[in-house]
């Protein structure tokens, strides 16, 4: 995330006077806040999300700064390492109205590993889901649904090894990417090279040293998927 992209996120929450489904705000002016619930909920959310430290929600999200940039980064990183699976965060910091702001980008947990949860609390005590602009502990049923969807997600990412990227409708993919851009204009995903972007979206995958469509990619964007005798057609 660039500093300009972070500024835009700050302007967004200040304009709406509210956090968003993909944006959590913490003050952190007096110390490192607890963030396990937000790490879990945002990583279980499609597309992940961000936590912005240094804004005060009670004051209309005005900048109040953070207690110590280096120590806060370390604390946030250690918290991310206690999640299952561990999360690898990306940090961006800037000075805004004389206050230091830190943003942590939380990647979406791979579908086959969801739900992401706080290890010390266990699966049923440490799994959260994002609801509007807040975090809610998952019910047993929601955890079951995440786990039951793992095998289907793995099947969807299998390579259609006889197909080529040219067998996909590029215009349809471009429209899909445009929708992602409209929903998450600051996403680092959108600055990736085209082939890397399609891999990150699980539209393409590597098979024997070359890129081929995934089953999901072929079903969604294939120009004529029936020719490959996909097992689910």
From TrEMBL:
Top-level taxon of origin: Bacteria
Residue span(s) of domain Schlafen AlbA-2: 19-139
Pfam short name (any one): SLFN_AlbA_2
InterPro entries, sorted: Schlafen_AlbA_2_dom, Schlafen_AlbA_2_dom_sf
PANTHER family associated with the record: GLPR-RELATED TRANSCRIPTIONAL REPRESSOR, SCHLAFEN ALBA-2 DOMAIN-CONTAINING PROTEIN
UniProt name for this protein: Divergent AAA domain protein
């Amino acid at each position: 995330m660039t500093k300009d992209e972070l500024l835009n996120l700050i302007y967004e929450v200040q304009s709406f006077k509210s956090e968003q489904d993909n944006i959590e705000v913490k003050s952190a002016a007096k110390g490192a806040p607890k963030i396990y619930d937000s790490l879990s909920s945002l990583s279980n959310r499609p597309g992940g999300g961000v936590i912005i430290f240094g804004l005060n929600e009670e004051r209309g999200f005005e900048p109040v700064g953070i207690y110590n940039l280096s120590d806060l980064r370390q604390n946030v990183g250690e918290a991310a390492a206690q999640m299952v699976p561990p999360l690898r965060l990306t940090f961006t910091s800037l000075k805004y109205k004389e206050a230091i702001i830190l943003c942590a980008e939380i990647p979406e947990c791979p579908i086959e590993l969801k739900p992401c949860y706080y290890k010390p609390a266990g699966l049923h005590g440490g799994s959260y889901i994002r609801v509007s602009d807040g975090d809610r502990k998952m019910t047993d049923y929601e955890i079951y649904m995440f786990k039951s969807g793992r095998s289907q997600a793995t099947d969807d990412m299998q390579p259609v090894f006889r197909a080529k990227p040219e067998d996909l409708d590029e215009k349809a993919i471009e429209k899909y990417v445009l929708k992602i851009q409209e929903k998450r204009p600051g996403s680092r995903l959108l600055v990736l090279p085209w082939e890397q972007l399609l891999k990150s979206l699980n539209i393409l995958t590597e098979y024997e040293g070359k890129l081929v469509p995934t089953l999901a990619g072929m079903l969604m964007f294939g120009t004529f998927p029936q020719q490959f005798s996909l097992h689910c057609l």
